[in-house]
Amino acid sequence: MNILIFGASGATGQQLIRQALNQGHKITAFVRDPTKLTTTHPRLTLIQGNVSDFATVQRAIQGQDAVVSALGADNMFKFDPVLMTGLANILKAMEVESVPRFIYLSTLGVRESRKEAGFMIRNLAPTLLRTEIRGHEEREKMIRQSRLEWQIVRAPILTNGPLTKTYRAGENLISRHFATTLSRADVAHFMLTLVGDGRFIGQSVRLLP
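RE: above sequence
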């Protein structure tokens, strides 16, 4: 499949690229700074640009089968309006180009799920990460209002641990852990399973160990 990845140069984005290439997909990585991405491959295309530029976003989306977003703010303590504009551009371009499948990486810390996300996320995230959480909540709302085949993945605290493929996914899962964590590799693995899978379309999925 042809898959476009936003936030490709981040830690989760690079996991998405490596695993997707290993699975045989053709990948387009949308990045602001190509020097941050060290992976090279015959099936990997880089597009340098800013998500706030609609024309560049639309050009990247043309011919794709699915779009995956691992976009995140550079500073989790500062609200980034560029991400809001960027997501609006992505959603609009996908609708214009008739590319329906969109997988978005969010967080368990959003209001709807954090009560069941374990002690640390439930009690500390609303204070320490309130700006980041606010951004995800607003972007989730934009996604739900779109006409796309969207799937929102709400991940716990991310680590650089190995790929285990031993995680749980569902809308109403509950964590009993003090600190609920999952490796970026496992999060990327799950997101890629959704690319060609009809499960969870129009749903916000909790991902837990």
